[in-house]
Amino acid sequence: MRMLRASRPIINDPLLNEYVSSLGHRLVANASDVKTPFHFFLIRNKEINAFAFFGGYVALHTGLFLYAQNESELASVVAHEIAHITQRHLARAMEDQARKSPLTIAALIGSLMLAVAAPEAGIAAAQATTAASIQSRINYTRSNEQEADRIGIDTLARAGFNPKAMPVFFGRMLEQYRYASKPPEFLLTHPLPESRITESRARAQQYPSVMLPPSEPYHLARARIIARFSGLEPAAALDWFTRQEKKASLSVKPTLEYGKALVYLDTRKPEKAAAILDKLISAEPENRFFLDALTDLYVQKKNTQKLLTCLTTH
Ligand SMILES: [Zn+2]
After folding, report:
1. E-assigned strand segments in the chain
2. What is the pTM of this model?
3. How far is the CA of 118 from the centre of ligand 1 (A)?
4. How far is the CA of 149 from the CAs of 1, 5, 178, 183, 252, in angstroms?
5. pLDDT tens digits for 101-154?
6. How many angstroms does the Cα of residue 103 sit away from the middle of ligand 1?
7. Known catalytic residue: 96?
């Protein structure tokens, strides 16, 4: 974690941390063979990726939120990563390497972790040669991937998510990058042949269909990421929200309004933000995302009295 903190931008946002942690733990609570505590966190990076490493750490790139169109799709990636940990895929690969190589376990852990966490950054790290020589062997094997899919989809279904989201999301990812010169990191470390999608589609068919309403927390977290952590310019972020509004269902629309309010706050347009927040808060007075934005507004307007009242009453 220390190496990762030094090399990658980990997001420290209480609302987003709370969201990924509750999503992750809802899956862990429905997973088998859980022997260690899990920790979920977000990395600011627009590439689609997620990875798991020792100690039950699961990292999610913000880019996942740009591509996942609903909470079940995001959860399918998280469930897959959780399975890599419960099935000790990385740990087993490391034990295997330790038997064959003169390196210490500590050196191996470092380079394996970097190779998984950052196929590119890993090579530039201190243990350059080790990382490079191990990288070719660290990528999860096809049987690891099949196992993580099989166990992950079961966890997904037991946690009440839509199991069909897994083949849908993997299929979209493959389609997206079919002709790209550089596939996303996720596909480098998790080989995704067509057969994996076919298999997970067949597996998903074995579970009863679930029709879920859009998850408000997911869409709020998504809006917050688009507004604050996606690297989009304010105008482009506003444009994203406007385009989404056209196809969004009624229950998702307030989350897009919330995203716009954040952009207005961050570009010092408190009046525009206030007009939106007024409406959002009167509809959902205890929504923590909305209240958090309201306190941002009070800070900006230097309205100490209202700020203190808001923070003490909720
Ligand atoms: Zn995998």
Report:
1. 39-43, 50-53, 57-61
2. 0.87
3. 14
4. 26, 28, 21, 20, 29
5. 666 666 666 666 666 555 544 434 434 344 344 444 446 778 888 999 999 999
6. 25
7. no
- Residue whose entry in the numeric block shows the structure tokens 């869409």: 219
**Domain range for 171:** 2-204
Specify whether 73 is catalytic.
Answer: no
* 300/163 same-domain check: no
Number of structural domains (the chain) is 2
Residues 49 and 196 in one domain: yes
| C-alpha 265 – ligand 1 centre gap (Å) | 38
- Determine which one of 81, 154, 257, 296 is catalytic: 81
Q: Are residues 161 and 106 located together in one domain of the fold?
A: yes
187 and 284 in a common domain: no
Distance CA 267, CA 98 (A): 52
Q: Is residue 211 part of a domain?
A: no
Of residues 71, 145, 147, 149, which has the active-site annotation? 149
How far is ligand 1, taken at its centre, from the CA of residue 200, in Å? 13
